[in-house]
Amino acid sequence: MKYYIIAGEASGDLHAANLMKALKKHDPMAHFRYWGGDKMQAEGGQLVRHYRQTAYMGVFEVLANLGKIARNFKFCRADIVKYDPDVVILVDYAGFNLRVARYAKQLGYKVYYYIAPKIWAWNTGRVRKIKKYVDKVFSIMPFESEFYAKYNVPVLYSGSPLMDAIENRPHKGEGFNSFVKRNGLSNKPIIALLAGSRLQEISRILPDMLAMEAYFPDYQFVIAGAPSFTIDDYSTYLNGHESVSVVFGETYALVECAHAAMVTSGTATLETALLRCPQVVCYKMWGGGFTNFMAKNVIMKVPYISLVNLIMNREVVKELFQSTFSRESLKNELSLLCYDEQYRTRILEGYEELALIVGKAGSSDRTAGEIWQTLNDTK
């Protein structure tokens, strides 16, 4: 079968790559054409666009790049027709992918959505588009299945693909001493900095994270290098922070060995929790107070921004969002994470409950099996 897959960021690239790997087990003749990243490319097929060229964060970046987005969409439409796939598989990336879903469905292509867009958080009205243009949603969170089922959208919950990635991570359980030796780090306990996978994110959040170094001299600060970045992307921010290290390709190993972490809101918050590292969630966009007002009063439909708290339906980890995100609030929270054992214990206990809800590994294979079966049933 021919699969056309569209992922628009690092986490989508990771989960789509695992799905491709699983699909090849069920379908030895699988052929892939996709928008994604390095991990998908490692699974074979043809890469059309790298997410470095297509990822835009926030309202202002989208508005500033409307021309590029329109050209990408026009190219995508033509590329799908030329490739003529058996199915179009959309991976998150809602703003772009929902437009693709409409076009692909109108042309008669089968459309599946894997890692469904978080419309339950931002724009519940989009559920009508999904119902109309998507043949099946493969959800990764239990509460997502309940949401889509309520609107009579065909949905299957197959578990979180993060568990597959975490279960199969390199250097699993290697320990602190081995990790720091292998990466040329010191023996100080680690504070991990997960500043995001987009240039816009690190430009807004990383300077504030790095400013914490002055307040925690007993710790070493280590940045988790984003998959699409090089050291040059971080160099500007490291002036005056020469003791801060950047480690690429080992985010899971870094988080597993860290004493605490500062994490930009997104999939990384759930990954950090499942790796049992106490964290503070950070998020800041352009727009200041206006963006904060719009987010809380107009856009957001849920009380939390992190997947950890959303799944648990309570505050397990502290969220510093827009107006509450400051260097002072970040320093106060990081102090609790580093020095208050009771505080750390409460977070870790919450993580254990979270892990039971998320479930075990095997999501990618279950999803691939269902995709393969449903495609064969409709042949």
UniProtKB/TrEMBL annotation:
Reaction catalysis annotation: a lipid X + a UDP-2-N,3-O-bis[(3R)-3-hydroxyacyl]-alpha-D-glucosamine = a lipid A disaccharide + UDP + H(+)
Biological process according to GO: lipid A biosynthetic process
GO CC annotation terms, alphabetical: membrane
InterPro entries: Glyco_trans_19 (IPR003835)
EC class name: transferase
GO molecular function: lipid-A-disaccharide synthase activity; phospholipid binding
Keyword Signal: no
Keywords assigned: Glycosyltransferase, Lipid A biosynthesis, Lipid biosynthesis, Lipid metabolism, Transferase
Enzyme Commission number: 2.4.1.182
Record's function text: Condensation of UDP-2,3-diacylglucosamine and 2,3-diacylglucosamine-1-phosphate to form lipid A disaccharide, a precursor of lipid A, a phosphorylated glycolipid that anchors the lipopolysaccharide to the outer membrane of the cell.
Protein name listed in UniProt: Lipid-A-disaccharide synthase
